[in-house]
Specification:
There is one protein chain. By secondary structure, the chain is mostly helical. The protein has twelve helices and five strands. Helix content is 57%, strand content 7%. It has a three-stranded mixed β-sheet, covered by helices on one side. Strands 2-3 form a two-stranded antiparallel sheet. The N terminus is likely disordered.
Length: 359
């Protein structure tokens, strides 16, 4: 397969997501999977909560893959809840967006700025009293609001002028037209509205998303390579697939041990992005010992059944621009996929066994 990594190949479902600027702003305001600052987490409380939740689930029946899937959902849920409860995350201050004053100026802005500075100086002289009944404080708020209003008015005028120039040059000067469009798009952010996948141009947010899906699907489709290095690598991948298949074909997989689990967890890189369920390896590392026993039971059910639950085959793929070439060309993006943490744990246990047995 093209675009393969050094992970052992596991069939997986990729979820795509492309956000525009407005979506990103909304996500930053209310994101349930916000990164956890583990150095500021009350670890003792986190251990107590995870131990209590794990102990409750340990008493539940866990003999089939369906039951394992249900338990996995609960584990993901209480790990996220426990981390959020114990984290010392301060609520984000929703500051007003900064005004772009550097590109606009007018006599009205200058007058409003002078007024704002005058009342600000008087307010500071009074000791910065925030009394709604105080006249100077009221004047300070009023002049500040007026200054921002004047800046927004001038910014709107500039945008209208740019649009007018674009419309006027569309038929008269093609080169200038495209230059203006490029500048206008750059000012609006990095979102793309057109994507070229092969010979096809896809326009619009939904079509761009479909274009990325098609592009990465094509990369993951097996094809015969003419490059010797690629052929050798693919042969190695096929060899490892054969080893894994041989290990699981009769479902006689030796149960995982607590030592194997602990070694696998410690070997996974820390400080990485959360998976699709909001979990990182730190959620497991900092949890109580009872969680390890619960995870061990889950992994051994998977080994016994010889199948991986579908929810552990889902990954988050993000198209990342390579910082070269045209942003509208799909070939100038690489896909970064985040796998579920427990998937990585299982993969690492299998990999360690392969290394011991065959290497």
């Amino acid at each position: 397969m093209n675009n393969t990594s050094d992970h052992h190949p596991i069939k997986m479902k990729i979820l795509y997501g492309i956000s525009n600027d407005a979506d990103c702003k909304n996500l930053t305001k209310d994101c349930t999977n916000r990164a956890v600052k583990w150095d500021k987490v009350d670890i003792d409380l986190y251990v107590a909560i995870t131990n209590e939740q794990s102990d409750c689930i340990l008493n539940m029946p866990l003999e089939t893959l369906e039951q394992a899937t249900s338990v996995l959902e609960q584990v993901h849920g209480f790990l996220n809840d426990a981390a959020a409860t114990c984290a010392a995350n301060k609520p984000r201050y929703n500051a007003k967006p900064k005004l772009n004053v550097s590109c606009v100026w007018s006599p009205d802005i200058k007058l409003a700025l002078d007024e704002m500075r005058k009342y600000y100086a008087q307010w500071v002289k009074q000791g910065k009293i925030k009394d709604p009944e105080n006249n100077i404080y009221q004047q300070r708020l009023r002049t500040k609001k007026e200054f921002r209003r004047q800046v927004r008015i001038e910014n709107a005028k500039v945008k209208d002028t740019e649009k007018q120039r674009i419309m006027e040059t569309r038929t008269k000067d093609t080169k200038l037209f495209h230059q203006l469009v490029k500048i206008n798009r750059k000012n609006r952010g990095n979102a793309i509205m057109d994507l070229h996948v092969g010979d096809i141009c896809m326009s619009g947010e939904q079509n761009v998303m479909e274009g990325f899906k098609q592009h990465f699907r094509n990369l993951a489709t097996p094809e015969e390579s003419t490059v010797l290095e690629n052929r050798q690598y693919h042969q190695q991948v096929e060899y490892e697939i054969g080893l894994i298949t041989e290990m699981v074909k009769d479902k006689n997989i030796p149960p995982a041990t607590l030592e194997e689990l602990q070694k696998a967890i410690k070997s996974i890189n820390k400080g990485k992005s959360a998976d699709i369920y909001g979990i990182t390896v730190e959620h497991i590392l900092h949890a109580g010992k009872i969680l390890e026993m619960l995870l061990l039971n889950l992994i051994n059910i998977i080994f016994k059944e010889g199948k991986v639950p579908d929810m552990l085959k889902e990954g988050l793929l993000t198209p990342v621009f390579k910082n070269k070439g045209d942003k509208n060309m799909a070939t100038n993006y690489r896909g970064i996929t985040v796998l579920p943490v427990l998937n990585k744990v299982i993969e690492t246990i299998v990999k360690l066994r392969i290394n011991q047995q065959y290497l």
